[in-house]
Specification:
This protein has one domain (1-87, 133-175): 7 Propeller (Methylamine Dehydrogenase, Chain H), CATH 2.130.10. 0% of the residues lie in helices and 36% in strands. The chain has strands at 16-21, 28-33, 38-42, 51-53, 60-65, 72-77, 82-86, 98-99, 108-110, 136-140, 149-155, 158-163, 168-171. Strands 1-2-3-4-9 form a five-stranded antiparallel beta sheet, with no helix packed on it. This is cDNA FLJ23731 fis, clone HEP14545.
């Protein structure tokens, strides 16, 4: 008996570069790949991601849920960007599903898999099919794009990342 489960994005093969599990709901997984897309998976449901989010303009190198506040997700990319994704329910109403300073084009393909069969008392905000909850605020954590942001780590209110510019950036207050 095999414990391996095969999940895939599309018929096209897109290399995945990073993966992280939700710290409280182990069935929720985020991945990022060569195409810069952020994919959110419910590994209990089918073999397709729940959400595909147009993210970075180049390869995504890291994706991390905040370990104690998993409504917050962080990604970094070859395009020099470092983003904070906030899917908490207390995000103020926005005129668009996404907001990210300086970026005008965003894309959301939600509910690829059927969520009607999810039987749990608390559903992750990353898996919500309620349109009122599909509000994600995206904030750039670097003042300007530089060379590739290759890696990141987050603990408590601090985030650290490393870049091809031989620089380490530390954000000490992630939450206001």
């Amino acid at each position: 008996m095999s414990l391996l489960r095969y999940c895939h994005l599309t018929g096209d093969r897109v290399p995945l570069h990073c993966v992280d599990r939700h710290p409280n709901q182990q069935h929720v997984v985020a991945t990022g790949g060569q195409d810069g897309m952020l994919s959110i998976w419910d590994v209990r449901q089918g073999t397709m991601p729940v959400s595909l989010l147009k993210a970075h303009e180049a390869e995504m190198w890291e994706v991390h849920f905040h370990p104690s506040n998993p409504e917050h997700l962080f990604t970094c990319s070859e395009d020099g960007s470092l983003w904070h994704w906030d899917a908490s329910t207390d995000v103020p109403e926005k005129s668009a599903l996404f907001h990210q300073g300086g970026r005008s084009s965003t894309f959301l393909s939600h509910s690829i898999s059927n969520q009607a069969n999810v039987h749990q008392s608390v559903i992750s905000s990353w898996l919500s099919t309620d349109p009122a909850k599909d509000r994600i605020e995206i904030t750039s954590l670097l003042p300007s794009r530089s060379l590739s942001v290759n890696t990141l780590d987050v603990l408590g209110p601090c985030l650290v990342c490393g870049t091809d510019a031989e620089a380490i950036y530390v954000t000490r207050h992630l939450f206001s």
